[in-house]
Design brief:
Radius of gyration of chain A: 24 Å
Shape of chain B: flat
Largest sheet of chain A: 2 strands, antiparallel
CATH class of one domain in chain B: Mainly Alpha
Number of helices of chain B: 17
Number of helices of chain A: 12
Radius of gyration of chain B: 25 Å
Mean pLDDT of chain B: 84
CATH class of one domain in chain A: Mainly Alpha
CATH superfamily of one domain in chain B: MetI-like
CATH architecture of one domain in chain A: Orthogonal Bundle
Structural class of chain A: mainly alpha
Strand content of chain B: under 5%
Shape of chain A: flat
Strand content of chain A: under 5%
Structural class of chain B: mainly alpha
Number of strands of chain A: 2
Largest interface: A-B, 109 and 111 residues
CATH topology of one domain in chain B: MetI-like fold
Low-confidence stretches of chain A: none
Distance between the termini of chain A: 19 Å
Distance between the termini of chain B: 31 Å
Number of strands of chain B: 0
Oligomer: heterodimer
Low-confidence stretches of chain B: none
CATH architecture of one domain in chain B: Orthogonal Bundle
Amino acid sequence: MEKRATFSKTSVGVMFVLPQILLVFTFFYWPTGAALYWAFTLERPWGGGNEWVGLDNFRQVFADRAYWGSISRSIIFAGATSFLSMGFGLLLAVACDRGLKFYQAFRTVFVWPYAVVAPAAALAFRFIFAPEAGIFSALVKSNHEFWNPAQNGYHAMTMIIICYSWKYAAYCFIFFLAALQSIPRSVIEASALDGAGVLRRVRDIQLPLITPTFFFLLVISITDSFQDSFGIVDVMTDGGPAKATEFMVYKIYFDGFRGLDYSGAAAQSIVLMFLMMVLTFFQFRFIERRIHYS
Amino acid sequence: MIERTPLLNTATYAVLILGALSVFVPLWLVYVGATLTVREINIPELHLFPGDHLIENLQAAWARGHLGGRLANSLIMSLGVATGKVVMSAITAFGLVYFRFPGRMLIFWLIFITLMLPLEVRIVPTYAVAANTLWPFQSILDATGLSTVVATITGAQVALEWNLLNSYTGLILPLIATATGTFLYRQFFLTVPDELLEAARMDGAGPFRFLTEFLIPLSRANMAALFTIMFLYAWNQYLWPLLATPDRAGFGTTSVVELKMLAPTVSTNGGGTPDWNVAMAGCLIVMLPPLLLVAFMQRYFVRGLIATEK
């Protein structure tokens, strides 16, 4: 879409766009370019710039079993949190959309978890699941093996998944409810006249009509789970115990800033960038479909 | 719709009430935790009823976490990001929609692509840029040979340096360098009828006047939505402030990053049991500002969230 009427002074137009260009160049394109450069080079041990090493950094990263571990953990985390947060978000949105008495109050409450800062939620859930003081403490007292996220990797992962899903169910709820409410009333009324009950309408009219939102949220939750999990992991478990909750971004941070392996971290960044771009590409395709539906 | 479905209504209310409980119970447990003494909180049982040490714990958390200064940092950073984003998005979208200049579509796509890669995936080099923001420009000068030209003419070595670590600028700028709001504004400007510009021009308004007196008042609702979303986004940031504020004693950091110091993990002090009552009090303090913002701005917040993610 283009405007018919525009201003004619080119230089003024450029002036309006220039600040953003400078910013994007300095803080987006340059770092992205630097990541690419570092990924294909290696710093010489005695200084004197970087040496071109081709795909060596990638080979090294992919030969590292810890890296594959972080990928599979990220995927498990993405799958589990998407399932939980979208499932609960959808359930609550459908319940709210029925428009029963007091539903506005419930709608307000269901949005709150999204407004809770992720690291604060992480600290809260770390306390709630703390073996010494939280909800399981009484059970832990009689059986120490029952719950110990500081030692047991599965427990730590469960704790992080629950915390993240608690927050992001609210996010999914917002989108599902908006989608459900954008379905024209006439469609639902027509099916009611045809004798479809509430559940039948949900199954055969409302859910099929919001599939685009469903796919959109699926991609968004997967990409978000890659980037937004950092704060929660850092506050709750530090990636431990024994790397059991070390996800991709956490490993990049750890290798880059604690291990000072810029080239390795850069190669990992490039892999993650590639993954994100593939997912975003899918998202754009689904957005097209979404426009098509409405 | 008028239907009689008593059984289904009961089930729906059951779902709604269970949902509300799962929101409230964790928040309630945090509140209860913040009202107990260290001894009470470490008794291994479910703590469901609040004690009466809330004020003491809040004071302890405030002092231990230096929360006064940290909250101020969070506030300045969030206001900076939200304001910067609103202003930057508005003027960029204005330039892209209302002007024709060569390379306009290229610029559009260059800005658009930034939506694809969040800060987290390019975190290491972004940190390097923040440590010396003029590094890109220095490199360009070196690569083009301009710095040697300058060095031979003036005899002075070109060494540009501008460290943004431990500064509000450093916290804010990298978070503004994406296209989130630009597209929101672009979509909005495209829906503004052409006749408005024609009428304004006939009355003698230039581009600047048109932007400030026509478009900005028209986009007030969009602006509120974008501002709320960006404020929350910035307040929520963890990884970037963690890296961009290494000088904890001087500049400090944001309240959200400081939270971890209230309940240290293996990497920060070798583990051990944190003082959960103080940690929960700190948690309450840091949680509160964005919750209040959303409670008051819910309409804008929901609208902004749905619009910016499209």
